[in-house]
Design brief:
Elements lengths: L10 H14 L11 H13 L3 H7 E7 L8 H6 L2 H6 L2 E10 L2 E9 L8 E10 L5 E10 L23 H16 L7 H4 L6 E2 L7 H14 L5 E11 L2 E10 L2 E12 L2 E11 L15
Parallel strand pairs: 1-5, 6-10
Antiparallel strand pairs: 2-3, 3-4, 4-5, 7-8, 8-9, 9-10
């Protein structure tokens, strides 16, 4: 069954949060003393270690789930944890960024057949509320491929953000890029957004460079199969990294598009994405894959 449950093993963060996890066993400690990234790392560490008591301390009982294959609420989520142990499912956190109350992550899944393939790549977003509790989760997943058009993997490249004073500027650029290029408002402006000098491409089917994007668009158009973005639901950023979450259509079906862009000097120089079909039946909750 595809995508039975979604959990995260944040390798780099779990090490830094191990002390926080042990402290949480003492009821005198509060999530308010932790940063939002630490809160998310501790919660997800508890998920993989099958520690429901810590999960209950870190998250709200009415934890809102937007993965369409997982029931909403914390207790129904906890009841599904044994699936992890049965399948030996683990994941590696590659990138973690923060925008206000939102933590957005880029992850690799292994032993992930319940999700649809042996290895998967995902983007996950978690909202931490004003009380410091894990409150809401969104994600999208796609198979991790060994061979790609650019020779790059779907997750390699820089992981640390910079230019934090340009976060809002870069978020505005990413939104305009999606509107003009991917939603078709002004597609001829593509060179205004994408660097002609460097554009490292991590979509497995597209080559590097601005020319790679143009070639892919021309091919998909010739096949009458060009994807269509119809709505931007969320734009999150930390410095030079921006994640857009959009809705659209591809191959006659509704899809969610997660696009992570890295900017330098006002131009996109690197791109990662996850594209997932939006299910129309068999859903475990009614929250939808958006609802930000």
């Amino acid at each position: 069954m595809r995508k039975v449950i979604s959990v995260w093993v944040l390798s780099g963060i779990m090490a830094s949060c191990s002390t926080g996890q042990s402290k949480l066993s003492n009821e005198q400690n509060s999530t308010k003393t932790m940063s939002k990234k630490e809160t998310v790392g501790t919660f997800l560490g508890a998920v993989i270690k099958q520690e429901p008591n810590i999960m209950r301390q870190m998250a709200n009982t009415d934890y809102i789930q937007h993965n369409p294959f997982i029931p909403t609420g914390l207790e129904p989520f906890i009841e599904m944890l044994p699936i992890l142990k049965e399948n030996g499912t683990t994941a590696e956190n590659v990138r973690m960024f923060q925008d206000g109350n939102y933590i957005f992550m880029h992850n690799i899944w292994r032993n992930a057949k319940p999700f649809g393939a042996d290895e998967m790549v995902s983007f996950d977003i978690i909202r931490v509320d004003e009380k410091g509790k894990v409150a809401e989760h969104w994600d999208a997943m796609t198979p991790l491929l060994k061979e790609t058009a650019s020779g790059r993997s779907q997750t390699d490249g820089p992981v640390a953000s910079s230019d934090h004073d340009k976060t809002e500027e870069n978020k505005a650029l990413a939104r305009s890029m999606v509107e003009d290029v991917l939603m078709g408002k002004n597609p001829s402006k593509i060179a205004d957004y994408i660097s002609s000098v460097q554009y490292d491409q991590h979509n497995p089917g597209i080559k590097d460079g601005l020319g790679g994007v143009v070639e892919a668009v021309e091919y998909l158009t010739s096949q009458n199969n060009m994807f269509k973005y119809t709505k931007i639901h969320k734009v999150l950023g930390e410095g030079n990294f921006v994640l857009t979450v959009s809705e659209g259509e591809w191959s006659g079906k509704k899809h969610v598009f997660y696009d992570l862009l890295r900017f330098e000097n006002g131009k996109a120089v690197e791109h990662w994405d996850v594209i997932q079909e939006i299910p129309q039946e068999g859903m475990a909750n009614d929250n939808g894959m958006f609802g930000f």
